[in-house]
Amino acid sequence: MQTSSFFSQLRSSYASEIDDMTFDSEGKNVLRQRLGERRQELTFLRQMMELSPEMVSVVFHQGMRFQKPAVMEHLVSLESDELPDWESLADAIQLEPWAQALASELSKEPMGEWLLTVAAGLEYLFAKPSHAPAHESDDEDAEDGEENSNHDADTEEEKEARAREEAGNDWMVEQGFDRKE
User: Fold this and answer.
1) Average of pLDDT values for 139-150?
2) Which of 7, 161, 171, 172 is the most buried (most CB within 10 A)?
């Protein structure tokens, strides 16, 4: 799968955003609660659609089911100014009822449909096994030699994950928390 530079850059930020929301300072998984809070902040978040689409896109986390992977793989290969209309993705993406309500609300905004398309691409990339940035095998090939073919991608992803974790730990120390080991 080929990912455009636009989605490659946002994918890392999106994954970090989800990671930051997942656990509280005591190590409890609070993702569901924090996603609910973020969804309640949609009125405020609208102003961030163009500059920080990954921060707004997280409101759709776990709210999209992808019916046509080939359409999604084409989508994530496109740059931001090449993205298709949100309506053209209707057959490829099934929204959960709560996500449909958010999408209807956001689509009224000038950049709303663009954001929905970006959110779909980011959520698709996040949902891919191991969030592999490149040469990821199709589902049919997943059982045959995936370990060897994805060794370089896994190594690169492990480096990215360690860097994200270290950056998160550094930020927590800056906020006055003890370093997590």
Assistant:
1) 40
2) 7
Specify whether the CB–CB gap between 57 and 11 falls below 8 A. no
What's the rounded mean pLDDT across residues 30-44? 92
CA distance 8 to 30: 26
Which CA distances in Å does 169 have to 121, 141, 162?
Answer: 28, 36, 10
CA 52 to chain centre: 12
CB atoms within 10 A of CB 172: 15
Phi, psi of 46 (to 5 degrees): -55, -35
Q: Give the closest residue to 106 by CA, choosing from 65, 56, 55.
A: 56
**What is the reported pTM?**
0.70
Domain boundaries, the chain: 5-127, 135-181
Helix (H, G, I), strand (E, B) or coil at 93: strand
